[in-house]
Write a structure and sequence with these properties.
The chain has 470 residues and is an all-alpha fold. Helices cover 83% and strands 0% of the residues. The protein has 18 helices and no strands. The chain has helices at residues 11-42, 44-68, 70-80, 87-100, 102-110, 121-151, 155-178, 188-210, 213-219, 228-262, 265-301, 308-332, 334-341, 348-380, 384-409, 415-439, 442-453, 458-469. α14 (348-380) runs parallel beside α16 (415-439). The longest helix is centred in the middle third of the chain and has 37 residues, at 265-301. The chain is globular and about 60 Å long.
């Protein structure tokens, strides 16, 4: 079943699927941006502390989301093959997996200080502890149930929930950070609680919608179910993807602590601002990659693999337009970005370093977005093992080792060099993924996935119905 009424592989098709995901990702990433802007007004120290603490929270989020994201791939394939009854099983088992992650999160939250540099541990540890304890609700809501709506093409449901969640987050940010209208002034803790409350509300809205009458009748969503065959299919794909994210996100978190230890206060501030903008503008790559992966998964379910190349070209055109738009804030007029976070006068040296970091962050966003588009094809084709090897080896060789050696040990270069290493890492992954796609090896994975998507076909479902009638 086609996801849209537009021509397959066309710009309109990729845009019609991706724009709600892009907008949903933008509003989702806006939570992080809003937290940091509000904290920068409250305290520069709190703003920098959150900037260097957030990678550990982000690492846990990405690791589990990398595992849970496999759900959307299978949902897209099952929906394309009209195999509806398998969908609710994979959603429910993913929800339980999300909450079982408390086994890891509780010890990490209890010992948050050991992960942070001395300069930021007093402010950063409470923030990290609180956000980690709310994380499973985010994983179960946006990761598991959100993947259900994305996989069946109802991206607007996810968008509405994210908008509501954002409004709640901003409201409680203002109330709890500054202590307005009788609420206690909690500062950096208030920002963490605001994020957690918004995630909690979003999860229950998702759950209420998921259990609604239309989805109960069509997908039997009200009946929790498990499938050992599904679990066996998810684990080989999800675990390597999660391990890759743990190694890469964990490596970036360690890099952030290196920068916090050896860089000056001005460099740390400039790096935090550039990183905040990088994280926000990543929304386009995230949404576009999810849209491309969803469409490619649907092509695989429909046995139309030849259309993947057309969709990739359409996605690349959208990325070029976005690159021109972001250049306004990150290259042409960086002062607009600086004043969003820091209103005091700055030295010429600080502004020069900040401009170079922001320019490098722009390059990192664009190159990494193109890399993510290529990897989305491999993920949709279940060629996850190659993606894992490529991601881990490129990051640790092209980014982590040079930063550790030349920034942390030898002190030859500073934070700008770190951004250059991030770009080099993404370029290495692009070359690796492109060569893999050109080789055609991944197409064997597609044939296996197409056979799997036909498991328990509708004819089997009709036989079950006749047995029930008897």
């Amino acid at each position: 079943m086609k996801l849209t009424r537009h021509e397959s592989g066309s710009l309109r098709e990729i845009w019609s699927i991706s724009w709600p995901m892009i907008l949903a990702a933008m509003t989702n990433y806006f939570i992080t941006l809003a937290d940091r802007v509000i904290l920068s007004i409250y305290s520069k120290d709190a703003f920098v502390a959150v900037g260097f603490t957030h990678p550990f929270y982000w690492g846990n989020t990405r690791a589990m989301m990398a595992f849970i994201s496999v759900t959307s791939v299978f949902i897209g394939k099952f929906y394309g093959a009209r195999n509806y009854r398998q969908i609710r099983k994979i959603v429910w088992q993913t929800i339980f997996i999300a909450f079982s992650y408390y086994v890891v999160l509780i010890p990490c939250a209890w010992n948050a200080k050991i992960f942070l540099a001395d300069k930021i541990e007093d402010l950063g540890a409470p923030y990290l502890s609180i956000t980690l304890l709310f994380l499973p609700f985010h994983l179960a809501g946006f990761g598991a149930i959100g993947a259900f709506f994305l996989g069946i093409g109802l991206t607007r449901v996810v968008l509405v929930v994210i908008l509501i969640s954002n409004l709640i987050n901003i409201l409680f940010d203002l109330l709890l950070v500054f202590g307005l209208y009788g609420f206690p002034e909690l500062g950096i803790r208030g920002a963490a609680y605001a994020t957690g409350i918004s995630q909690l509300v979003a999860f229950f809205i998702f759950l209420y919608k998921f259990l609604g009458r239309p989805y109960r009748q069509r997908f039997l969503t009200h009946v929790p179910g498990f499938s050992l065959r599904l679990i066996k299919k998810c684990l080989p794909l999800g675990i390597p993807n999660a391990i890759s994210s743990i190694l890469n996100s964990g490596g970036f978190a360690i890099v952030s602590q290196m920068i916090a230890k050896v860089c000056s206060a001005d460099d740390a501030l400039a790096f935090t601002i550039a990183n905040s903008i990088y994280l926000f503008f990543w929304f386009f790559a995230d949404g576009l990659g999810k849209g491309l992966s969803t469409i490619c998964s649907n092509y695989i379910g429909r046995n139309e693999v030849h259309m993947i190349a057309h969709s990739f070209r359409s996605s690349a055109k959208l990325l070029l337009v976005f690159a021109g738009f972001t250049a306004i804030f990150m290259i042409i007029n960086p002062n607009l970005t600086l004043r969003l976070f820091y209103q005091d006068e700055v030295t010429d040296l600080f502004f020069s370093n900040f401009c170079w970091m922001l320019f490098a962050a722009w390059g990192a966003v664009m190159v990494d977005a193109f890399r993510w588009m290529l990897q989305s094809i491999l993920i949709a084709a279940d060629d996850i093992y190659f993606a894992v090897i490529s991601n881990v080896s490129c990051f640790w060789l092209a980014a982590f080792v040079p930063i550790f050696l030349f920034v942390y040990v030898l002190h030859w270069w500073g934070a700008i060099f770190c951004w250059q290493c991030f770009i080099l890492d993404s370029c290495a992954r692009i070359i690796s993924d492109f060569c893999r796609i050109r080789s055609g090896t991944w197409k064997r994975k597609v044939l296996e996935a197409a056979q799997f998507s036909q498991m328990n076909t509708p004819s089997n479902g009709r036989r079950v119905s006749r047995r029930r009638q008897k």
